[in-house]
Amino acid sequence: MARGRWEVTATRASAGVLLLAWIPIWALYALLIGPANPVHPGGTLAMAALIAFRSIGIAALLGFGVKRVTDLVPWPHPFQLRFALIHLGGALVYAHAWFVLAAALENFLRPGALHAYFAMIVPNLVLGMWLYVMIAGTLYAARAARAVAQAEANAIRAQLAALRSQLNPHFLFNALHAVVQLIPDRPRDAARAAELVAGLLRTSIEEDRDLVPVAEELAFVRRYLEVERMRFGERLEVRIDVSDAASQAEVPSFAIQSLVENAVRHGAAPRVAPTTVTVTGRVEAGRLSVTVADDGAGAAGTTAPDARGTGLRHLRERLGVLFGSQASLTVETTPGAGFTARLSLPVGDAR
Is residue 165 pLDDT above 90, yes or no? Predict the structure, then answer.
């Protein structure tokens, strides 16, 4: 996702710069050959603008040849004399080709114009070489921008993959621990739980998307909760209230699962009394809000930001990579009143 957005942005930016660069060149060339030029006595500025448009148009078309040269001759690291000589030759060929084609076109449209062109051969050739340098420089700069964007995208993908690799073993360890606890007294339930954990493991391994629909994430959460209900029985009650709009929105993969897992681990596990975990999801003002709350034992308020351990820390890091400052994850807790984790992030085009 990040890679595509940055690459498109870099390409559009370089194309826009190149397009805008031709406008002042056209204007300057029109002034160069305009009424003040003794080679064009009696000419008008409008006529000069038209001639300049045709000539600069030919220069722009020849730019495709320059692009081919830059494709075949990448920028060397370190800089090499051979590279400079190739482009010096390319600039000379480009300048002469532009001069000949532009002069031939004008002489065809306005017989006798060839004299005026030959009278300005030196300035035209110098300008042609400068145009070559401008085109080649812009193309190399565009490639460098794309390379930087791709490197940043690769780094982000690697960082997200690393965070997922840290998150999944943490979750699977807890799920397998639930299976182990069932084996001595409830072997049949343990076998069923093991099958469910295997399905969860398959999903966690195969899932390589950074963002998934909330509906798919909740389906994964419900399968995870089947395992935990076998372990806790009536001690664990879960309520899910997610609107249709929120179900269609996207969240980081395993985000809601991490919140629910922490609620079960820190809310239900330490208690003998029943614990209720409530999951709510809403979309308001272009933002998705997901809240996971439990009525467990809670903790001292001063420990709230770190009370949920590695799971939420990794989730915060993923949110930072994917959304920057646009997303947030907050945790509130009060002794005896459980934990509340709130996830807020932009939806769709609001990102």
Answer: no
Can you give the pTM of this predicted structure?
0.53
Task: Return the top range by mean pLDDT from 122-126, 173-177, 342-346.
Answer: 342-346
Instruction: Quote the CA–CA distance of 146 and 72 in Å, as a whole number.
Output: 17
For residue 186, give the DSSP letter: -
| CA pair distance 135, 128, nearest whole angstrom | 11
Displacement of CA 241 from its chain's centroid (Å): 31
Long-range contacts of 242-247 (CB under 8 A, 24+ apart): 242/214, 242/218, 242/279, 242/280, 242/281, 242/282, 242/290, 243/281, 243/282, 243/283, 245/282, 245/283, 246/214, 246/281, 246/282, 246/283, 246/288, 246/289, 246/290, 247/213, 247/214, 247/215, 247/218, 247/281
CA distances from 324 to 212, 319, 320, 321, 338 (A): 18, 7, 4, 6, 29
Count of CA atoms in the C-beta half-sphere (13 A) of 19: 6
At residue 49 the predicted structure's pLDDT band, cuts being 50, 70 and 90, is confident
3-state secondary structure of 23: helix
Tokens of 166: 């840290």
| Distance (Å, whole) CA 323 – CA 343 | 12
- Quote helix, strand, coil % in the chain, to nearest 5: 70, 15, 20
CA distance 226 to 199: 12
| Cis amide linkage into residue 335, ω under 30° from 0 | no
Alpha-carbon distance 58 to 25, whole Å? 13
Predicted local confidence at residue 215, as pLDDT: 95
Domains of the chain, first to last: 2-150 (no CATH), 209-350 (3.30.565.10)
Residue type, 154: N
At a CB cut-off of 8 Å and minimum separation 6, what does 80 contact? Answer: none
